[in-house]
Structures are given as structure tokens and as C-alpha cells.
Amino acid sequence: MSLVRLTTPRLSPKPNMFDTTSKARPRQLSLMPRLDVREMPPPERHSEIHDAFAELDSGEVLELVNDHDPKPLFYEMQAEVESFDADNYDVEQEAEEKFVATFPKK
To answer: pLDDT tens, 30-56?
Structure first.
């Protein structure tokens, strides 16, 4: 039995329409699945994440909650998954052991 928990999608952040200093592309308002892997055994995480990402349609985003910066997963996805949009990947540390990353699909 898998410990993966997909939660209710949430809205992506709304861009600041008045910020003229930012060169980042504004994010589109969309729903995204959220996958929290913090309670999952580490050896099972990457395969579950890859499976969840594979289920996305083009233009969708997988939001991942992890207990560490998922930089190794970023490099793995960048090297192995052609549909991963590495240019629009983002990660934020929300707490000591809570990192939230977005994995967009081309």
C-alpha cells in the first residue's frame, strides 16, 4: 500500500501585475495536483513522483512537498524527462523540513 497522498488542487500564485521590475514570466492561474512525499520512504519517492508527473497533461504543474530541497530530482527530471519544463521550475522553503517545488510539464 502506497503512502502517497495527492491532495486537492490549489490555485497557483497570482502574478503581481504592477511589478515592472520583475523579468520573470507571470504564472497562469491554474489548478495543480499536490503530492506530499514527506512521509514516504525515500527509496519510493522518485518513482511515485515520476508516475504523478506522467499523468499530467501538457501545461499542467505538479506541486511537490518534500522534507529537503529536491534539487537532485530536478537534475534527474531535466536529464530524463523530455516533457519537464526546467525553465519554469520553482522551489520555496516554507519551513525547516518543508520545501514546495513546482514541476511544470511542457
So the answer is: 568 999 999 999 999 999 999 999 999
Q: Is the pLDDT of residue 100 over 70?
A: yes
Kindly state the greatest CA–CA separation across the chain.
49
Q: Supply φ then ψ for residue 47, to 5 degrees.
A: -65, -40
User: Distance (Å, rounded) from C-alpha 65 to C-alpha 55?
Assistant: 17
Nearest to 76 by CA among 48, 50, 56: 50
C-beta separation of 35 from 64 below 8 A: yes
Q: Is 39 among the domain residues? A: yes
User: Which domain CATH number covers 38?
Assistant: 3.30.110
Contact 12, 61 (CB under 8 A): yes
